[in-house]
Design goal:
CATH class of the largest domain: Alpha Beta
Number of strands: 12
Largest sheet: 7 strands, mixed
Number of domains: 2
Radius of gyration: 21 Å
Bound molecules: pyridoxal-5'-phosphate
CATH superfamily of the largest domain: Type I PLP-dependent aspartate aminotransferase-like (Major domain)
Order of helices and strands: HEHHEHEHEHEHEEEHHHEHEEEH
Helix content: 40-55%
CATH topology of the largest domain: Aspartate Aminotransferase, domain 2
Strand content: 5-15%
Number of helices: 12
CATH architecture of the largest domain: 3-Layer(aba) Sandwich
Structural class: alpha/beta
């Protein structure tokens, strides 16, 4: 019998696949890779979280969870959104999901039918267009540029809106650019989104990694936009908990109920132990998040000074997230695509970077400072040597 695959479900291979498989090949043959491509704050598990995990297991909190999440977590997550980001969510407005990514997946699964357009700001996180296509949607890419600080403006948004537009995905605290929007900028974007009846998915997973005392403004803090704004949150980056797979969807009760039905027929909810660890993370937010943030800010500043020394350029440290998004021309690289350059650095210097093409922007590379200091220092040295041997 031949198994017929639904072609719509095949996601095209990304620009990073070839590079990742080369890195894997090198690692399995025992070669050390200096990894500047990680998408996570590489830190040991915080002691308070370790205790919470052990306690949850000892107390037998290992059975099926409620599909939408344990009530203790939905309550503390809603309070966290109030106290840290001025959002008025009740536990009924919160769904616990297996990481922020799965929240976005579920929302697009629920929202899209064939031909619906999803407006995505470039440079974008790689998964937005891929998940959109998975559910029959058409990604509509809005280009931004470095001179304009990589920001979506109300005018740019208006230009791409049509009667087919259904969803806007906004990534405040951006991967890969690290930009942060002000309250006024968000208000103007949300006003346009409402005018065109768009569902706004506000991806806020880096909210706790806003550096230099930059304020973080959540799209959930605008009471007049409660109905068409959904906030995606996560423990991954904010509490260095990537492997525990705990994220949240916050939004109106009706959407949360429908998403809960999808969870009920897919994962059946998030691992019970992980949820108790997340409760401990949020209850100790004032200890754990500053620890992650300070460590990441230190690594960011180290990477900035290494780049400035090695390349004699001025690289501005990003105000948030975990990445430098740098133009190849600025680094002195000419006549090479971002994928060719990243392949060369990996082949010659065993250093992993991500090509800008993966984020929809040719001519750039993304460097992560989430990695540990040793990899970071040697990785930048290797990068410099690959350009000026
Ligand atoms: N959104 C952005 C912009 C990200 O960079 C990531 C992870 O890299 C996610 C969402 C998903 O994070 P998680 O599923 O670990 O919560």
């Amino acid at each position: 019998m031949t198994f017929h695959i639904n072609k719509q479900n095949i996601i095209e291979s990304s620009a990073t696949v070839a590079i990742n498989s080369l890195a894997q090949k090198k690692i399995s043959s025992g070669i050390k890779i200096f990894n500047l491509s990680v998408g996570e704050p590489k830190l040991p598990m915080h002691e308070l979280l370790l205790e919470a995990a052990v306690e949850a297991m000892r107390k037998g909190k290992t059975l099926y969870p409620p599909v939408s999440g344990i009530s203790e977590l939905k309550r503390s997550a809603s309070e966290w959104m109030k106290n840290s980001y001025d959002c008025s969510y009740k536990p009924e407005n919160c769904l616990v999901v297996n990481g922020g990514k799965f929240g976005i997946y579920l929302l697009l699964q629920l929202a899209l039918t064939k031909g619906n357009e999803v407006i995505i700001v470039s440079p974008y996180w790689v998964s937005y267009p891929a998940i959109t296509r998975l559910f029959g949607g058409t990604p509509i890419i809005v280009e931004t540029n470095e001179i304009e600080n990589w920001k979506l403006t109300p005018d740019k948004l208006k230009k791409v809106c049509s009667s087919n537009s259904k969803v806007l995905i906004l990534n405040n605290g951006s991967n890969p650019t690290g930009i942060l929007y002000t309250k006024q900028e968000l208000k103007e974007i949300l006003d346009v989104a409402r005018e065109y009846n768009l569902l706004v998915i506000s991806d806020e997973v880096y909210s706790g990694l806003a550096y230099d005392n930059h304020p973080y403004i959540s799209c959930g803090s605008f009471p007049e936009h409660q109905d068409n704004v959904i906030v995606i949150q996560s423990c991954s980056k904010n509490f260095a908990m990537t492997g525990w797979r705990v994220g949240f969807v916050f939004g109106n009760e009706n959407i949360i109920k429908q998403l809960t039905s999808l969870v009920g027929q897919s994962t059946s909810g998030v691992t019970t132990i992980s949820q108790w660890v997340a409760v401990a993370a949020i209850e100790n937010e004032k200890i754990i998040n500053p620890w992650v943030k300070q460590e990441m800010q230190k690594r960011r500043d180290l990477m900035a000074s290494l780049l400035n020394n090695q390349f004699s350029v001025t690289v501005n440290p990003p105000p948030s997230s975990l990445y430098f998004f740098i133009s190849l021309v600025k680094l002195g690289v000419k006549n090479m695509t971002s994928a060719e350059f990243c392949t060369r650095v990996l082949e010659k210097e065993n250093t992993a970077l991500v090509p800008g093409l993966a984020f929809g922007k040719e001519g750039y590379i993304r460097l992560s400072f989430g990695t540990d200091e040793d990899d970071l220092i040697q990785g930048i040295k290797n990068l410099a040597r690959s350009i000026h041997p």
